[in-house]
Hints:
By secondary structure, the protein is an alpha+beta fold. The protein is 18% helix and 25% strand. The protein has a domain at 23-65.
Amino acid sequence: MAETSPNWHTSSHSGADNDACVEVADNAPHLIRVRDTKDHAAGELTATPAAWAAFVGYARGTRTV
């Protein structure tokens, strides 16, 4: 499977005042890619959709590890 360049856009869950912005890439259905809008040099977090769903569920307090 060929890797494509990420198509980054600001998440709808980012801060309204541009103080806590996160970007997500939406062009790789087999990967969830997330990065800090203001610090691209810090890299990105990459996860499978299943791992991302588990993380979000845990962060919301609806799933346990």
